[in-house]
Amino acid sequence: MAPDVTAVNSARAPLSRFLRWDVLVGILLVVVFIGGAAGSPEFANIDNLSFALGDLGEIALIALAMTLLVVAAEVDLSVASVLGLSSALVGNLWDAGWAIETIIPLVIVVGAVCGLVNGLLVTRLGLPSLAVTIGTLALYRGLALVVLGDRAIAEFPQTYVNLAVGDVPGTPIPYPVAVFAVLAVITAVLLHATGFGRALFAIGAQVEAAHFAGIRVKRIKLILFVVSGVVAAFAGVVYTLRYGSARADNGSGLELAVIAAVLLGGVDFDGGRGTLGGVIAGVLLIGLLRNLLMLNDVSTEIQSIVTGLLLVISVITPRLVAVARQRRRVPSPVVPTPPTT
Amino acid sequence: MTGAAEATAPHGPGTGDAPPVLALAGVSKSFGAVRALREVSLELRAGEAHALAGENGAGKSTLVKTLSGVHRPDSGQVLMDGQPVEFHKPADAQRHGVAVIYQEPTMFPDLSVAENIFIGRQPRASLGRIDRGEMRARAAELFARLGVALDPEQPARGLSIADQQLVEIAKALSRDARVLIMDEPTAALSGNEVARLFTVVKALREQGCALLFISHRLDEIFELCQQVTTLRDGAWIASEPVAGLTHEALIRRMVGRDLDTLYPKLDAVAGEVALKVHRLTREGVFTDVSFEVRRGEIVALAGLVGAGRSEVARAVFGVDRWDAGWVEVNGRRLPPASPTAAMSAGVALVPEDRRQQGLVMDQSIERNIGLTGLKGLRRGPVISRAAERDRARDWAIRLQLKFNRLSDAVNVLSGGNQQKVVLAKWLSTRPQVLIIDEPTRGIDVGTKAEVHRVLSELASDGMAVLMISSELPEVLGMADRVLVMQEGRLVADIPRADATEESVMTAATGRAS
């Protein structure tokens, strides 16, 4: 008598396994690389690629923390401002004669506090992170200006500058990129192979079900915001040393490139979906495109337009694909609403 | 096939000659592989109240949604005055004079009662301004016709559910509705409110309205209706006059077998107290709730929708806070508002809303089952996929889950199988206290029996089970004791031997049912 329910199953077309978004981005990356190499002789040499990678360092680092947040259906738009605040503090304190060894941990702590403020506003007051971090985006940048004004502090000791711009001995890999590689592996394991990662996906996909399953949703979100602040502050140190210049407006607008990379990498802005591999491909893709545009003397305005377009396209395309798929399925089998009375 | 019966209706002037106002002829509707309606026919006549009977999941709501233009039938016809019509959307049905009154109407809380009635069709004065005076007068006139005292100027916020239903009925009247469909209107009403509703509805019936009435309370069907159509598992079973039918005969039509075999509660010896709830209070939600559940016992928590049953369960499990009182599991107090602590103390909660609370719908069967026991799946710092899969497979087999691959998302499963995944997810934590909220809501009769069998076995193995259910047969068939809540308070503790539909409903509503 019971309705036949065994057959309710979408036999997934084998092709759609290859059509995963993050795989597509990986393929696109290869295409851009080959195209770039063919079109511009300066592109595919080791020095340029090493520079391109190094130039990506801050975006790549921040994108790791951002991925965790977006998977959990939150976002942190204040990262570039935290980077700026961190840079301003480094400049101010260095100017005041502090040692770099003291400055760095202190700046990291300030980053943690910035993240904590974001996290508390989101988890304790239940405010949407989009709104909260737009507010703190302005707030932290404002603080950076208070700390350093419009001064630019330069002349950092060469040993530290070398750490930011130099390569790991015997390789063409800049130190920040090496740090990124290590953190990326850790993040990938964390996201895809640990209970913490499982919890993040559950929170992002269905926060109520996660709460009912005993997952400490608020605590985890708070941790993510703190991590995001810490990483942004660390990226601020790297940025400052790499350019050899501490300014309050360092890195402004960087959050857009980070979010573009994360979404381009196939992380669903609504949370619950995404892979770190996709994000890394997204970061590299954005980096290569920026590098190519730069090599071809395209103005920064156009570069900004390209970043913006990528952001919009990466949000729109998966939706369009989903809608198209939905249309193809005749009587939508996905949601067999049980008849309830 | 109906209507020809001579004995039909004391109130049925329309029976016989004129075609039915609204009818379904051989309507079928499927959702994926779930066949919600199979060749169902139904005839609603002017001046007649028609009851729709059937268990949860029998297809009643789908039928209502088909009549009201929410769903379109896969095959078969909807007929108005004998003519086929197609309702593409609810507005089409409304235009044809079909109105639905839901159990809990949705209103615009900040608008006045009159504005709610005339929303989208406000009477106009010059320059297209809304004529408030006219609107108020017409609302007052409608209430006078219904014989109820409601202020048209009052904001809808704060109206009782009963008053909201009356506003909806007034709205239906203002649209000259000829067919009024009422989907469990009395589930959340008190005795006086039901009486008032029935007075209004009987008056409408006598004015020539055709009524379709859905209720789980059989007495109400016998009081109000002339005809009854019974559905079971989506299939049409019978349409017949109410007169001459007994409660038992109607239940047999609905269930299709004897109740005793449907609810196979094994006898179990109640052991020591596993869950003790003492004077638990959450302000404005429930007050001073105390009870115990022993090992081996299935205790049902019964009551009307909104009596505070699920809220008590949520507080005990720590999803919500409580303001006063305490909860003890195996003699140890639980900290408030911590599901994590409740879980490590051995409590599991199978929540009411499996799509929002029970499952992560987009994720796979194995991930959903693993989510409650991530620590146990760890090998070193990482989760072992093999362990995750093994656990899921174990439980899928034990609960006879029907699935293709464990990596399939749970949203492709039927409601009954989804419920089994939720059960697996919680049983895999090896709980000592299982709280299960509406264990069989919206699942088919076959799976239902399996869920009941599982619960019964768990209790026999010494688990303490607290079951919340709005289905009286389930409560009566499964429970060793029945606790009854009314308006946030525990009002009765009835042992199995004394628990009857009457005793439970009397306690739940504070009236003789």
UniProtKB/TrEMBL annotation, chain A:
Its main location: membrane. Keywords: Cell inner membrane, Cell membrane, Membrane, Transmembrane, Transmembrane helix, Transport. One of its GO terms (cellular component) is plasma membrane. This is Autoinducer 2 import system permease protein LsrD. It is a multi-pass membrane protein. It is found in: Cell membrane. GO terms for molecular function: transmembrane transporter activity. The keyword Heme does not apply. The keyword Transmembrane applies. The chain crosses the membrane at residues 18-38, 59-83, 103-123, 130-153, 173-201, 222-241, 253-269, 276-296, 302-322. It comes from the Bacteria.
TrEMBL record, chain B:
It comes from the Bacteria. CDD domains: ABC_Carb_Monos_I, ABC_Carb_Monos_II. It holds the Pfam family ABC_tran. Residues 22-258, 269-512 form the ABC transporter domain. SMART domains: AAA. Residues 1-20 are annotated as: Disordered. Keywords: ATP-binding, Cell membrane, Membrane, Nucleotide-binding, Repeat, Sugar transport, Translocase, Transport. It is a peripheral membrane protein. GO terms for cellular component: plasma membrane. GO terms for molecular function: ATP binding; ATP hydrolysis activity. This is Ribose import ATP-binding protein RbsA 1. It comes from Planotetraspora mira. The gene is rbsA1.
